[in-house]
Write the structure tokens for this entry.
Amino acid sequence: MNHLTTKGPATGQDRTGLELAADQPYGPHPRQRMDVYFPQASDSSRPVLLFLHGGGFIRGDKADRANVGWWGARQGFVTVLANYRLAPEAQWPSGAEDVVAACQHLRGLCSSFGGDPNAIVLAGESAGAAHVAAAVLIRSFQPQNWKIAGAFLISGPYDAQLEHMARGPLGITTPDPRNDAYFGTERADWAEASIVERVDAAPFPIVVCTAERDLPQMQVQAGALFSRLVKQHGFQPDWLVLPEHNHFSAAVALGTEDDSLARPLAEFVNKCAAESAVQA
């Protein structure tokens, strides 16, 4: 276990009283690793936040969002940053499969760090949000004992069919290095790889979040997902637009004085944890 208790030069965040257990495996692939950030003070009922980084399906690393881990641990959460397999080596639906594998492994692991296995909230940005959304909204990816407390989706792409058909209007280049790598270029049924078309999970607490200066395709798909969840599936999701932020800046700001994402994310995690405790 890697113990860090000083201020880090990369972020300037105060790490006093916090610890990091790095590179916990949740599967056999080298990318299937998690970093666990947690408070030193012993507790057995802390909320758990599992966060998936972005990177357009083809890049990114949990270390790039270390600020999220330290921020979450400072809030009193067991905060887990997970890598996942990248395209083109791994294609749809590998992201959803990795999220489920990470979550299930974490359920047995988090009590070692003071986390409540019944209070796991999933969050992701960009491609990470797409992977989280697929895992939590499509039941075929979920094992029989699947249980989460909530999900917080930040600026994700949820409709591969739309992005495939509307590249011109949405300003998406062709070939698309992101979606082409992950979803492929030829599909008999693009709806099969589109989360908005496959939602069948029972309602649970969820936030659909986008940024004021987000990419057009992310704003369109966030609205489409919100609409589908409400009108067709009985959800009452929270809707959040982050003022002044762009596609990635909100997550980067966690751990700074900017609380536009930090405040609603912390409130949501705490609310989900409280509700899970009542239901237990």
In short: The longest strand covers residues 115-125.
